[in-house]
Specification:
With 143 residues, this protein is an all-alpha fold. It has six helices and no strands.
Length: 143
């Protein structure tokens, strides 16, 4: 078994030179086209993962934030069709007033609402504490 090398403290000047050399290598790497390609691949992969997780949650009835343009660009055709089918499934059976309320409050993102939120929105007789009405009724005073 070989003996470990004795520990030797570096001087401040040596540490500064090591940091400067590392900073120079890092700057060279970040300026290279390989780094740009690597970062673009990682951004695409991250957006794809986020989009797939949002899609799974939306299909299962969970509430998700709207898709970003980058996330939409990563979705495949069958996934987009599944999202459209979920929205169409929710649209069927809605009255014009219910659809208008959902569209005004959530800009038509029917597939992105949680099941209980969707039920609350389309329910005409909302329970106490549910979402507020979009426009005050006649005779209501504003504070």
């Amino acid at each position: 078994m070989t003996r470990p090398a004795p520990w030797k403290r570096t001087t401040a000047a040596e540490r500064r030179s090591y940091r400067a050399a590392y900073a120079q290598k890092k700057a060279e790497w970040q300026a290279s086209p390989e780094c740009a390609a690597y970062q673009a691949k990682n951004r695409h992969s991250d957006a794809r993962t986020k989009a797939r997780n949002k899609l799974k949650l939306a299909i299962s009835g969970g509430r998700v934030r709207p898709f970003t343009p980058r996330e939409i660009a990563t979705l495949l055709a069958p996934e987009i069709e599944a999202l459209k089918a979920r929205a169409t499934e929710r649209k069927t059976g809605l009255t014009a007033e219910q659809f208008a309320r959902v569209y005004l409050l959530h800009e038509g993102n029917l597939a992105l609402l949680r099941d209980d939120q969707f039920a609350t929105l389309i329910n005409v007789d909302r329970p106490k504490g549910a979402l507020q009405q979009t426009a005050p009724e006649a005779g209501d005073e504003q504070p």
